[in-house]
Amino acid sequence: MSLYEDLQDSGTIEDGIVIEGGKIGKMWEIRESMINSHSRFGNTLTFDISIPIAYMEDAIVTMRKKFDEIGINSCKKYSANKNENHLRYVTGFGHLGDGNLHLNVVVDKYNAETTALFEEHIFEYAKSHNGSISAEHGLGSIKPGFLKYSKSKEMISIMKRIKDKFDPNGILNPYKVIPTEI
């Protein structure tokens, strides 16, 4: 019996894909094409979060409901075309086995106001499920201000002190990872 069958029989997993015969390249092609397929419907905002595996599907479903509750789904105010909804889809994929979810929000056109709402709700969800606002792609120069969703003020302060110790002149990755204000 294979490992896959053992895990399925034990109830550890419900479903999965077994790739045989050198077809791994095709699987990666399908995975990589997801973002490109989103672009047919609008602009894609991708949120790289890390949450416990048990909450992967719930994150997508909860965000769809949350965005509907706050009126982004049906609100024409944010739409580039007033006859269409601003929010098109909320989807997810990633390295689900290690808790890394690429949560994708497809909108008709980028809008700073709704992006701020998406960030707030998605990062709050990650925080409330003991997750992180950044998984594999790191914080970079875009997310330092959101680090508060994943780390306490004390932890951010310790991170800053460590960085200052190793980089007293602030020349290594300036303005990245550590927020300028704690």
TrEMBL record:
A Pfam family of this chain: FAD-oxidase_C
Superkingdom per UniProt: Eukaryota
One of the record's GO cellular component terms: mitochondrion
Annotated ranges, domain FAD-binding oxidoreductase/transferase type 4 C-terminal: 21-177
Cofactor: FAD
Keywords, sorted A to Z: FAD, Flavoprotein, Oxidoreductase
GO MF annotation: an example: D-lactate dehydrogenase (cytochrome) activity
Keyword Phosphoprotein: no
Entries under InterPro entries matching the protein: FAD-bd_oxidored_4_C (IPR004113), FAD-linked_Oxase-like_C (IPR016164), FAD-oxidored/transferase_4 (IPR051264), Vanillyl_alc_oxidase_C-sub2 (IPR016171)
Catalyzed reactions: (R)-lactate + 2 Fe(III)-[cytochrome c] = 2 Fe(II)-[cytochrome c] + pyruvate + 2 H(+)
Protein family: Belongs to the FAD-binding oxidoreductase/transferase type 4 family.
Protein name per the record: Putative D-lactate dehydrogenase
The species this protein was found in: Smittium culicis
